[in-house]
C-alpha cells in the first residue's frame, strides 16, 4: 500500500506504522523562485531530512519518495522553470541532490495540470532531462537509480488535460492518478461527491478514469 504523508500534518512522523506500507511519499517540497531549485519550507525540512530513516526503523524494505507540489509556494514557478533549460537543470540537480542527501528512493512531481501556462513540450523536455540526470547520477555514484514518479489528473477531472504519454512512458517509473476533487464548492453551486467511484450522472468518477 502507498500513501502520501503531509509534513504539515499534526500527526508526528514517529507515529506512522510504516510496516503497513510498501511506499510512503513525503509531501510537499516546492519549486523555488529565481533559478528554481527545490525549495523546502524551513518549518518542515527537518521532517524531510529524517523521514526515510524513521520509516526504515520499523520497515527496512520500505520505499520512500520525496514529493514536490507543482502549484506550491509560487504557482508561477513551474511554468517559468519549464521554459528555461538552465532552470530545468537547476531544478533537476537540486532534486537529485536532496533526494540522495535525505536517503529517498525517488522523486514525485505532484499536481501538474496542463493549462495555457504549461507548455507540454517543455514538460516532456523536463522528464527526459530528469531521466538522463538520475541515470547519470546512478552511474557516477554506484547507487540504485532514483525512481521518477508524477501524479497526474485524469481527463474527467480536468477537461483540458493533454499529457505526452510517450514521454511519460519513456521517462517515468509510474504515475499516480489523481481521482478526487471531482466536484468542489469553489467551482460548483451544488453538493456532489468529490471522489465518487461511480457516478451515473457525470463522467467525473474513479471508474471512468
How large is the count of helical segments?
A: 5
Main beta-sheet annotation: 7 strands, mixed
Element-by-element helix/strand order: EEEHEHHEHEHE
The structural class is alpha/beta
> How many DSSP-defined strands?
7
In round numbers, the mean pLDDT is 85
Distance between the termini: 20 Å
Cα radius of gyration in angstroms: 18 Å
Structural commentary:
Helix 3 crosses helix 4 and helix 4 packs parallel to helix 5. The two termini are 20 Å apart. Strands 1, 2, 3, 4, 5, 6 and 7 form a seven-stranded mixed beta sheet that branches. By secondary structure, the protein is an alpha/beta fold. The radius of gyration is 18 Å and the shape is globular. It is built from five helices and seven strands.
